[in-house]
């Protein structure tokens, strides 16, 4: 099975990596890590941003391998995160995309948008949005931590 795992170095991303490593069969799952550098209008892309993303991917790959997972590739892309994640899932013919949700709400959600929601809505592959139960005090039931879209059905 091919799993696309977007990473950004956040606690949310780290918890998602931990969850997938304990959920999917390590022998039969290949992980494809991606980190997207978002396009911000009127803000020049600097080498520091590229270097930081490279480091995020390096650490994510190392962590996944420490968990005993097989990392097939770790790629960085430039663009709109939701669109690039969906595009890359198609390019590698992923069986599934597993993306963490930061749980932003209100004004921060309006300002930042929701990458996970965008991927869930637009990706042609199956998508799991993982939200660690501790991230949101709104969750009363840990089973609510997963939103699953199986677009193949």
Structural write-up:
39% of the residues lie in helices and 25% in strands. With 153 residues, it is an alpha/beta fold. A six-stranded mixed beta sheet has the order 3-2-1-4-5-6, with helices on both faces. β1, α1 and β2 form a beta-alpha-beta unit. It is globular and about 45 Å long.
SSE topology:
Layout: E1 2-6, H1 11-23, E2 30-38, H2 47-66, E3 70-79, H3 81-91, E4 96-100, H4 106-112, H5 115-122, E5 126-130, E6 146-149
Parallel strand pairs: 1-2, 1-4, 2-3, 4-5
Antiparallel strand pairs: 5-6
Helix pairs in contact: 3-5
Key attributes of the depicted protein:
153 residues; alpha/beta; Rossmann fold; 6-stranded mixed beta sheet; 5 helices; 39% helix; disordered C terminus
Distance between the termini: 17 Å
How many strand segments? 6
- CATH fold-type name: Rossmann fold
Instruction: Enumerate how many helices there are, as a single number.
Output: 5
Mean pLDDT: 82
How many domain modules?
Answer: 1
Task: Report the structural category.
Answer: alpha/beta
Unreliable stretches:
107-112, 135-145, 149-153
């Amino acid at each position: 099975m091919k799993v696309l795992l977007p990473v950004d170095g956040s606690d949310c991303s780290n918890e998602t990596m931990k969850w997938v490593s304990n959920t999917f069969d390590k022998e039969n799952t290949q992980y494809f890590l991606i980190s997207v550098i978002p396009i911000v209008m009127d803000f020049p892309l600097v080498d520091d941003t590229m270097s930081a993303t490279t480091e995020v991917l390096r650490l994510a790959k190392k962590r996944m391998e420490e968990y005993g997972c097989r990392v097939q590739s770790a790629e960085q892309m430039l663009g709109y995160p939701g669109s690039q994640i969906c595009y890359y899932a198609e390019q590698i013919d992923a069986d599934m995309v597993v993306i963490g949700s930061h749980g932003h709400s209100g004004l921060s959600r309006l300002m930042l948008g929701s990458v996970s929601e965008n991927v869930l809505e637009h990706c042609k592959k199956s998508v799991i949005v993982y939200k660690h139960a501790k991230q949101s005090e709104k969750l009363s039931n840990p089973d609510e931590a997963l939103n699953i879209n199986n677009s193949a059905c």
